[in-house]
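seq/struct pair 1
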Amino acid sequence: MRRTIDGFVFIFLLLHTIFLWSKEPGNGTKFDEFPLAFQDSLEWADYFYNIRRYQRAIPLYKKNLDTVKEEKAKILKKLALSEAAIEHPTQSVSYIHEFLQLEFKPSFLLHEGFDPIRTTDEFRRVSERVTPRINTWSLLYFFVALIGFYVMGMLLVNKKIDKNARILIAFFVSIHSLFILNISINRSNYLFELPHSYLMSTWSSFLYGPLLFLYFQRVSIKHRLIWKDLWHLLPTLILVAYLIPEVYAFTGEEKINLMLTRLQNGVSPEDSGKLVLIVSLKAISLAVYAYFINRLLKRNKEKGRLASKNRLWQNNIYYIHVAYVITYIVYGISISAGNPYPILYHIPIVMMATMVLYVGYAATNVQPNVLSATYTLTNGLFPKKYLKSGLTDSLSLELKENLTQLFEKEKLYRRNDINLDLVAKKLNTTRHNASQIINEHFEKSFHEYINVYRIKEAKELLESGKVLNIIDIAYEVGYNNKVTFNKAFKKETALTPTEYLGKLQKKKGPSLSEIGHY
């Protein structure tokens, strides 16, 4: 009995197989004659796809897209390739986006099936944004960011720098470095490979100005951080509170889908939905704090703070920051106008990189005490002239006092043959040490230092009303000729000696002989 049943099953399967074979397309039976269940099968879609009848395959794939969910990724790939084969880039790219949101595999875009649409704007837009690629800008920014984080570490562990000052400047450098690293990741299209880097530096958008301002306050007036200073952090706290539920709390997969959706809508995936608003508010914050810092620096100069200490360092940092502020505002205007030129994108980042490298240079190659306002920069943007000098602090102060006595008591500047060798001889030191004393303690060159004393005495002689003409005064204070005297006098007072004398006479009013004429 069992053998009889097995025989019937075998015969039934054999007949069913012959029937199906006779009904396959190409064996004399029309596709439309099949039952509907067979017509809509995924197998038939694959069959038409394999024989390159894409017009017949596409509707079948669409019908199976929602019914065969376990095959959805495969169906989306076939749909994207089928639309590409018949040169429908918009439809193909749409299916590419759906596939990438389901399975993020950008290598799929390298499939030769996309060759018919590879040069189209629609395909290039998605391919160039999701396929990782290293370029010169991304590599350069990556190395600058690494340098910045190294500098941050060096600052934090350096006990020679004032504690509060090093924390503020280290944090300032770190947010610059984080932003530059974020840009490097964006430019190399690794944003999708590292989804948690999405907007990873945006939270610090309103910190650049406050940190620099508080740092300048610390090194200028030894300002202690108090609870009141937390008001500077309020915009940052509001921004973070907004970004956590909107971005930072998302999973990696959710961030990828968010970026792909933005890309599908024609927006750069790394941009925030409120990009124009954030850029505008950041530009305002930078401008406001640049104004506050400028006021602080002017007040320092007026009150003689850091006269022989750290003014040049502060000015250099401020100028770089202002350059960044201006270029960022220009970039913000271009973003608002909807016409962001690539060069306007890179210039602010270059300014940030300059800031990181300059702070790093000063911290590691000049003297770390410059960051605490206890060292004088005297030789331009990157000073290094006296780093290896053997002049001790006590000897330096002693030579400074002796130099002041030579010029104020003995009036050595009156000698028309004065030179640096003569001054060094009088101080019983070397020419190099004499130059260092003048540069570091008075922030002037040798000739500028002499002219200060000469012009000061010349002004006193003009104000005294003694019967001396201009050339006599020039010879009296140490000049060899009137031309050199006039040039030096105008540089110091913005007036020639004759103009200065006329101004004095106007202040004094007319003489008795002049009154008699009225």
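seq/struct pair 2
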Amino acid sequence: MSEIQSFHHAAHWGRFSVLTQDGRIVQVEPADDDPAPSGILRSVAEWVDPTHRISQPMVRKGWLENRSRTGRGAEEFVPVDWDTALGLVASEITRVAKNHGNASIFGGSYGWTSAGRFHHAATLLKRTLNLVGGYTGHVDTYSVGAGAVIVRHALGSPDAFMGYGTSLENVIRHGETLLVFGALAPRTAQNESGGVSKHLLDEKLRKITAEGIKVIHVSPLREDVPDHVGAEWWAIRPNTDTALMLALACEIVAAGRYDAEFLRRCCSGSDLYLAYLRGESDGVPKSAEWASAITGLPAERIRELARLVSDTRTMITVSWALQRAHHGEQPFWAALGLAAVAGQIGTPGGGVGYGYGSLGAVGIHNTASKSPAMSEGRKPIRSFIPVARITDLLTRPGETFTYEGETLTYPDIRLVYWAGGNPYHHHQDLNRLRQAWERPETIIVQDPLWTATAQRADIVLPASTSLERNDIAGHRRSSRLMAMHRTVQPVGQSRGDFDIFRHLSRLLGVEEAFTEGRDEMGWIEHLYNLSRQDAARFSAELPSFEEFWRRGYVDVPSFDEDMTYLEAFTADPENNPLGTESGRIVLGSEALARFAHADSPPHPAWIEPVEWLGGETAARHGFHLISHQPRTRLHSQLDYALNSREGKTAGYETAILNQADAARLEVKDGDVIRIFNDRGACLAGATVSADVRESVIVLPTGAWYLPQDESERPLDLSGNPNVLTIDIPSSAFGQGCSAHTCLVSVERYDPQ
């Protein structure tokens, strides 16, 4: 038996070491300086278990024989060699581009396959397609689509929600009140797009408690803030946070406690916003009583909170989840309006922040120097959709849609190439997607695993996992660059994403432009050196690549951790204008008034969602479904592995419901329940709790989609909430995902 070898590695959920012996993984050890390693590390070794892996290139039988589009998801696959598979892929790309134009190729590939910045499947796919004429892609993210659009419009940049807002350390040192809308939990903060170097959120939360900062937690789910914080829990009705924010602002204005000078100096359109709060524009003052009827919260408590927000240094934090809803732009905008009315913006410890806890380092780290990133190259064509409009793209060719005030047209998609992602995890109304998935002539999926997406492809290309290749991790919010050493040989005939696209680019005649003469290690060293050169701008001397690769990580320059967002702007707006229509914070928008979208008023507003517990359909269904991020995995990754399996109930994804609801339904812990609406149905294992609001059920995302059959609306046997979620835009302006606007029915179910 050979000696045990140790390799540095990193994943989205942390830095770790992999110990191997005789080519097999024997242990995974978290970094010794990580104070709160993620439990997902327990599942890492199962990445190389061949049980769920794609062993070699595959082509669906009907497509191979006669290019049939029927049979996706049900028909058998034929194994082929790499030359044959990539020859088919190259010929299809060439055919579609020649006959229909490059806009008819959809380079989807929204996914989190690896924390590596070199073997980044989506980027490498786009780099390849850009070299042969381009493709239709996407803008924004499912995570923060609607919020991103409105924040860019109202604040002029994405800084506030991308980790460059006020730091949590600043709140700890200067704040008095922390008003949390949604979640601020280590559950979601265990992950980052380019890897977490250290998990520090829990440490920050304990400091907040130690400093005596009062925490108000507004959410239907108590566990969205850890118990040790001692937060005051406000169990709000889902999708009504905007109404509460507006009422708080209205009460501050009505009491004469608002900062009129700040609104005059630093905001535009505030008169329009104030008129709406007072009810001058629609006859309805946005008072505490008005909000109480919508949110289910007592009016007097709302007035008390308004006084607290205006009288103490208050940070208002809004999690990304709140904007994944119908009219999801509004809570992000209304939170900004509340902070502006209270005069908190630009003050140490106060203001508004977005996404604290939504990813591992938001509010924790702000990297100053360049992060390693592979380039997509120049885009030859401008063809895109908002990220959550996939089904509309496939079913509505030639029809128009709006985005940020622009009218665009859906192209006629003939070929879909998906690399490193799983839309059958993250997209809404999966039964609607399944029907749309039949329309393209060819679907290519490149992935390590037999996901539901791979099972519904025509050509399947087996990619290796990060454990089977070398890479580099890091991102704009990371305090470190991290080495990702290859730990074991590739499983079966799988190849690294770079090798797959290098071979494909050769067949397409663009290999030299794709590789730029570099191999895997050449590119990794090049990307590291670009970051190293940029760090010199901040008088930071990073070690040589050889030293970095041996040590496994290197610290990079970061901004001051005691950072106040918009401090320079609020001190001197004339000389530090924002990138908005007015150079000020936009509370009343001239552009939105011109666009005249019925669902996008020119100021923050309460607009009734299409489905909510205060609406007409509530009597029919009775439960609001929250499909939040799971504790036991990242999205759908490693759902089959140990850490995820242990979090399931009766073999199904675990759903949490209130004790009173459970008693009414005669459901107890461990029972199997059926969750359903007109869009679909799934099974789940029940957990009964007092820590979720009545008439709310919580079912995490990420269970691997497992339909009972291929009928129009089959029962999902895994507990995937996206068979239930609604697939409509947040608004005509933002076009974000509306997954958290979803009513369902629940019943006890006997699997026998």
